[in-house]
Each structure stands twice: as C-alpha cells, then as structure tokens.
Write a structure and sequence with these properties.
Layout: H1 11-21, E1 25-26, E2 28-34, E3 37-43, E4 46-50, E5 55-61, H2 69-77, E6 79-84, H3 90-95, E7 114-115, E8 124-125, E9 130-144, E10 147-162, E11 167-168, E12 171-172, H4 174-177, E13 181-182, E14 188-189
Antiparallel strand pairs: 1-13, 2-3, 2-6, 4-5, 5-10, 6-9, 7-8, 9-10, 11-12, 13-14
The chain binds flavin mononucleotide (FMN).
The site of flavin mononucleotide has 17 residues, from strand 3, strand 5 and helix 2.
Length: 201
C-alpha cells in the first residue's frame, strides 16, 4: 500500500485523489436567486445529512477565497432548489457549469424552463424528475490557513416534488429515475447492476 499525507500533495493532487476515490458521487443541480436572475449549477459534493428533519449538504468550493454565485445567493436569500441529475438532463446540466457573471442566468444556455416553487421564492427547473425546495439550515465556511476555501451549505427540504411515474407506495423507482453520478474528470456513470444483501439482525 502507498501511504500519502494529503498535506504533502499539491492542492490539485489532493482534489484528484478525493474525486477519484469517493465515487460514484450523486449530483445536485442547484438553482438559487439573485434578484430576478435564476442561477443554476451542478455540484457533486452532495449528500444526505439527516432524514428528520430532511437535511442535505452541498459543498461549494471557493477559488482564491471568492464565493461562487450559488453559495453567495444561498447565503443571501437562505433558499435553494436541488434537482436530481439523470440521464435525460445531464448534458444540459453540464452546460450550466459555465462560469458566468452573477447577473447572467446559466439556464439561458439551455432549453430548461423554470417553475415557481410552492414554499420559497426561488424557482426550480421543470424538467427535473425530482426537485427539492430547500431553506438554508446552516452555512459552514471551511477555513484553511486563514482563508475560506469552501462553503458547506446544509439545506432543509421544505417540499419534495417527484414525477408520479417514479413513485410507488412511498418508494422511488431507481431504474426509472436513471440517476447519473460523477466520477473523476469529465467522466460520469449510470446506475449499474443492482443486487440485494440482507442486513444482519
Ligand atoms: C458534474 C459537475 C459537478 C460539480 N461539482 C462541484 C462541487 O461539488 N463543488 C463545486 O464547488 N463545484 C462543482 N462543480 C463546478 C461548478 O458547477 C461550477 O464552478 C459552476 O460554474 C458554479 O456556478 P456558480 O458560480 O453559478 O455557483 C461541478 C461541475 C460539474 C460539471
């Protein structure tokens, strides 16, 4: 086995080790609001934090201490909408990862359309099969050597939306959802073969 101290690696190589190891990662497609501009971007540092209350986390990295629009808007409005990325929308979602100014909407680069939310003011994207209206539960600035390097957003879901075809007796049909996950670099993965293992008592 190789033994590596992350602090002995460059920032880039540490990033590459993490994104190559923590795979496959689910992808959150996040909309936030800056006045009337709807900002959209994908994030694969995304997971569940708790079920009661329904909490999810998205970690938004900073470049030279500068917040990305998603983090800035989420902190300012205390709102965000999280959509699950699937085979039918991943190509368009990738388009929204372009670096645009805060006054421009990444959605204008796509054929996505917005839909008003029920419980918050920030619109979602209609074409996603699952979307979660969220309020910001906690913002954790991650500090390293005196600068903030990331904004961890812990979001509380206040409304789930799901296509009815996917939802049977309280269960979500993973095959129909056809989620897409992120690997390292520009690589993505579809759902592989699934299998069952009984959990010990
Ligand atoms: C599939 C995918 C996953 C990404 N995951 C993250 C992530 O977890 N954290 C992050 O800071 N940036 C991530 N990015 C890059 C952001 O999407 C990109 O920086 C985007 O421009 C940020 O937009 P914003 O400035 O409007 O917030 C990802 C990009 C792609 C294509």
């Amino acid at each position: 086995m190789l033994s590596i101290d992350p602090l002995a690696l460059t920032e880039r190589d540490t990033y590459k080790f993490l994104i190559g190891s923590v795979v496959p990662r689910p992808i959150a497609f996040v909309t936030t609001r800056n006045g009337s501009v709807v900002n959209a971007a994908p994030f694969s540092y995304f997971n569940i934090v708790a079920a009661h209350p329904a909490l999810v986390s998205v970690s938004v990295q900073r470049k030279n201490g500068v917040m990305k629009d998603t983090a800035r808007n989420a902190v300012a409005t205390e709102e965000l909408v999280i959509h699950i990325v699937d085979e039918s929308n991943v190509t368009l979602v990738n388009e929204t990862a372009a670096t645009l100014g805060p006054e421009e909407s990444e959605l204008d680069r796509t054929t996505f359309t917005t839909v008003p939310s029920e419980a918050i003011q920030t619109p979602g994207v209609k074409e996603a099969k699952i979307r979660m209206e969220c309020v910001l539960h906690h913002h954790v600035p991650i500090e390293h050597e005196g600068i903030v390097t990331a904004d961890l957003l812990i979001a509380r879901v206040v409304r789930f939306h799901i296509e009815p075809d996917l939802y049977h007796a309280g269960r979500i049909d993973a095959e129909q959802l056809a989620p897409v996950s992120r690997l390292a670099g520009n690589f993505y993965a579809k759902l592989g073969e699934s299998f069952e293992i009984e959990r010990p008592k």
